[in-house]
């Protein structure tokens, strides 16, 4: 291998890649940070559409300048309409749009001499003597080869690893602008179960108000198969019009995606000098689909290892206990042993909101986890936990983490923006 072009190459400029580049190149510390090249996809089909990331933390977070909305009140609604509302003080539920997050991070990175960004479609990442090599093609069609001591790859793998259970969290959302005040801008509706429930799994509405007349409104399912585009439109229109009663409205943007919810074990190492990060490295919480906070934890741990001169293997994004609990929940939900709407509504009703959100982030201790577990259908969960070790992991053959897609914008009453 010739002399390396850089210490580290990060492939992919989504939440995982940008967060890692930011952490690796921050000034300060006892030792100088590594030089970093971030490879992002050029404009075109390889670049993901704009998407939304949500997470919770106290005010004053690292990325607050990119937050487009936050809420200190959270709601969950049962199928019959009964409402559970909570304030998870000191936590806030925050929403970031990928375009704003990228703009903030690009601005920070531009002023750091150890950082360089390139645009290319990556075709191959492989180990070579003394490090790793990234091969691809620039937007202009020229070949690109980068050599580094370490490479962190956030591209989704073509297939899911073997698993005992795979459900899909699939959704379509509209950014609505209504003619009259229709939303409570102070509260986020995390799960509204006043939606038609599928034969397996569950469905719910999700509402993040950006004002009294603006909100992201989504229809979401946890189920084995995705729906056709017309079905999402029909269900989302029903939820917006019949359940929320928004009246006349215009859709100003739309998003759609699929997130596998699985007990598969995602390898974090793809070679001696090649590592996987983000959703490709298991950062997505199996039982919820949230990823952003775990991505940031991984990025901080990798940067600490690099500065300490250790091999920067990404740590597990979620503890073994967290993954085991999620495996039980997914299996019980998939087998129909628990009623999904009743299960999640009961958790929010019986658990302090701040503790429950920390639990969902994997930030609780053993006793707190037990306290949450005792508020679930214990017999069904114990039966499922007992059978899991006897079940084989099978290949499911589904493409992992398809990118969100841009959609034609249509809305209630056929209005178009």
Short description:
The chain is α/β, with parallel strands linked by helices and 417 residues long. The chain is 26% helix and 30% strand. Helix 1 (15-25) runs parallel beside helix 2, helix 1 (15-25) runs parallel beside helix 4 and helix 5 packs across helix 9.
Describe the structure.
Helix content is 26%, strand content 30%. With 417 residues, the protein is α/β, with parallel strands linked by helices. The strands form 3 sheets. A 7-stranded mixed sheet has the order 6-5-12-13-14-11-15, sandwiched between helices. A 5-stranded mixed beta barrel has the order 1-2-8-9-10. Helix 1 runs parallel beside helix 2, helix 1 packs parallel to helix 4 and helix 5 packs across helix 9.
